[in-house]
TrEMBL record:
A cellular-component GO term for this protein: cytoplasm
Organism: Cricetulus griseus (Chinese hamster)
GO molecular function, one term: DNA binding
Alphabetic keyword roster: Coiled coil
Name of the protein described by the UniProt record: Spermatogenesis-associated protein 24 isoform X2
Gene name, Swiss-Prot/TrEMBL: Spata24
The UniProt record lists the keyword Coiled coil: yes
Pfam families for the chain: SPATA24 (PF15175)
Organism taxonomic ancestry: Eukaryota, Metazoa, Chordata, Craniata, Vertebrata
Coiled-coil regions listed: 74-161
Length: 191
């Protein structure tokens, strides 16, 4: 800083000291003024009018009211949700019980079906055995009937033979011989 007019540079020490102090104060105040100007510039840039502030404040109040209303609705919906979750839990437990009961009943039915199927198979096997036995018995009976028919024919022929003319004229006598059933009859030659 330049020396003011009327002051001499080689003056007394106290005046110089006072001058130096005054110069330091002025420099610090100039620095402070510069800082305040920067703050004012920033404040001008960030300045909001009273009307704008009131409008923003009004919007904030409205948003707080809307938030409170939404919060109340959320609480109601949360209560409904908790109730629904309780119902779902009760229904889930009931469904689990019914599932267990159904599986138990199904297992019982399957067991009964297996038993009935086993009984059916045993009955079919027994029926097949009986049918096979009946067929064998029928074959035996048919064989016996055929034997009886053959024997009836032999008896019939013997009746005819024994009811024929007197003793001197024996012709074509049929008699039984030992051997198979088919070859039991043999005709003696005519005399």
């Amino acid at each position: 800083m330049a020396t003011p007019l009327g002051w001499s540079q080689g003056g007394s020490g106290s005046v110089c000291l006072a001058f130096d102090q005054l110069r330091d104060v002025i420099e610090s105040q100039e620095e402070l003024i510069h800082q305040l100007r920067n703050v004012m510039v920033l404040q001008d840039e960030n300045f909001v009018s009273k009307e704008e502030f009131q409008e923003i404040e009004k919007k904030l109040v409205e948003e707080k009211a809307a938030h409170a209303k939404t919060k109340a609705l959320l609480a109601k919906e949360e209560e409904k949700l908790q109730f629904a979750l309780g119902e779902v839990e009760v229904l889930s437990k009931q469904l689990e019980k019914e599932k267990v009961a159904f599986e138990k009943a199904l297992s019982s039915v399957k067991h009964k079906v297996l038993q009935e199927s086993s009984k059916k198979d045993q009955l079919i096997t027994k029926c097949n055995e009986i049918e096979s036995h009946v067929i064998k018995q029928e074959d035996i009976l048919n064989g016996k009937e055929n034997e009886i028919k053959e024997l009836q024919q032999v008896i019939s022929q013997q009746k005819q033979i024994f009811s024929l003319p007197p003793a001197g004229s024996v012709a074509g006598i049929t008699c039984l011989t030992s051997g198979s059933r088919r070859s039991r009859r043999a005709t003696w030659p005519r005399c």
